[in-house]
């Protein structure tokens, strides 16, 4: 079994994890903005998310000779490690609920702000829990100022969302000065998935309307509303913020759960039974995440939320537009989580929570791909810059607090 044993190796794992975990939400958000039902996307994502855990278990988890203290993946599957397995599976449940929630929050609040608030809550709650679970191997005088930076970022993220919402409302009030627009049919319950050839070209096939509205204009906002699967016009932004905070709380529990699964701080294992290796814990973590995701999203196909159209398993299986991107998102998330756990096992899970600075990556994609904050007010830009500055400081401080597990 391969283990990361150096602080430098742990930081490399964290940096790759940071990129992967910051990129997959952008892909999922892109598909929703192109009209793909979130239930369809999440079912595809769940398949490859589990596949990533299986690949890591049968590769890194089987490298080298198995020992009684550090058994290989297949060896440990037959051992009586169920208390730790249950902790790992509880972490998978928390992650699945959090990921599912953010899918809907992105539409209301935007990719950048959702990732900032949820990631900050992970650090504020989860990192504090990990610090004590890890027997304080991280330097508190460095760690907790970093946590404070994330807490400040929560407030700044909420302010960015409020300011940007006000900017958008102002644009829509003056839409008649931008260009002549088509009326938004807010009473329709159909999507591009139901009628892929309804006149508008399917963006998931790489095609786009011949005339595009300029990013940041009222025309752009209404064009996006007509195209996306989750309709947000006329709905309270508090819905999105509530979903975001709920997601952040759920996310904050999964890293401490993996910590308990791999280090058995509460001494739940029988005497002589080795602790779960990180790959075995990650495997069971991903299995529970997969099972819950399948149950919830199949339910949402037939009983959708937020006025989304109904679908069926047959429609899901037959609709391939965007499926490759959803598969890629699942792989990125799976490998990102696995690398985070590998780094956390070596340097402490509190320090590994530095990957929650992933909004730095997500905001980059949000600005480049989705044109978020284009033509926004000066106040919004100042708040956005301040928010990102807090994250830059936070990731450096949390990485600097890394210890070494003995």
TrEMBL record:
Pfam families: Ureide_permease. Residues 187-207 are annotated as: Disordered. GO terms for cellular component: membrane. The keyword Nucleotide-binding applies. It is found in: Membrane. GO terms for molecular function: allantoin:proton symporter activity; ATP binding; uracil:monoatomic cation symporter activity. It is a multi-pass membrane protein. The chain crosses the membrane at residues 6-30, 42-61, 81-98, 105-130, 142-161, 237-258, 278-302, 323-343, 349-369, 381-400. InterPro entries: UPS_plant, Ureide_permease. Keywords: ATP-binding, Membrane, Nucleotide-binding, Transmembrane, Transmembrane helix, Transport. It comes from the Eukaryota. Signal peptide: none annotated. Belongs to the plant ureide permease (TC 2.A.7.19) family. This is Ureide permease.
């Amino acid at each position: 079994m391969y283990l990361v044993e150096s602080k430098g190796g742990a930081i490399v794992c964290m940096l790759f994890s940071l990129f992967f975990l910051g990129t997959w939400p952008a892909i999922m958000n892109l598909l929703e903005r192109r009209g793909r039902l979130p239930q369809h996307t999440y079912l595809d994502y769940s398949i490859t998310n589990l596949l990533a855990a299986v690949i890591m278990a049968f590769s890194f988890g089987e490298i080298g000779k198995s020992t009684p203290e550090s058994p290989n993946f297949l060896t440990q599957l037959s051992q009586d490690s169920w208390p730790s397995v249950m902790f790992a599976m509880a972490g998978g449940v928390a992650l699945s609920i959090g990921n599912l929630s953010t899918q809907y929050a992105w539409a209301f609040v935007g990719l950048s702000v959702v990732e900032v608030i949820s990631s900050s809550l992970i650090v504020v709650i989860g990192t504090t829990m990990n610090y004590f679970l890890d027997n304080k191997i991280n330097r508190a005088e460095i760690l907790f100022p970093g946590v404070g930076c994330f807490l400040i970022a929560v407030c700044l993220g909420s302010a960015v969302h409020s300011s940007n919402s006000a900017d958008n409302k102002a644009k829509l009030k003056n839409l008649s000065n931008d260009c002549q627009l088509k009326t938004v049919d807010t009473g329709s319950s159909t999507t591009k998935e139901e009628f892929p050839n309804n006149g508008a070209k399917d963006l998931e096939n790489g095609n786009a309307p011949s005339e595009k509205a300029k990013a940041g204009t009222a025309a752009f906002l209404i064009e996006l509303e007509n195209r996306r699967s989750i309709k947000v016009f006329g709905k309270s932004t508090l819905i999105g913020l509530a979903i975001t905070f709920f997601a952040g709380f759920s996310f904050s529990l999964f890293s401490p759960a993996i910590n308990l699964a791999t280090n058995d701080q509460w001494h739940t294992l029988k005497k002589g039974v080795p602790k779960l290796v990180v790959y075995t814990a990650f495997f069971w973590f991903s299995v529970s995440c997969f099972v819950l995701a399948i149950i919830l999203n199949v339910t949402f196909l037939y009983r959708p939320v937020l006025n989304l159209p109904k679908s069926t398993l047959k429609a899901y299986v037959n609709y391939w537009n965007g499926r490759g991107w959803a598969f890629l998102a699942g792989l990125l998330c799976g490998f990102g989580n696995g690398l985070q756990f590998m780094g956390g096992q070596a340097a402490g899970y509190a320090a590994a929570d530095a990957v929650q600075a992933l909004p730095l990556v997500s905001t980059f994609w949000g600005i480049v791909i989705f044109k978020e904050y284009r033509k926004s007010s000066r106040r919004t830009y100042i708040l956005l810059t301040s928010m990102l500055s807090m994250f830059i400081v936070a990731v450096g401080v949390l990485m600097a607090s890394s210890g070494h597990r003995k």
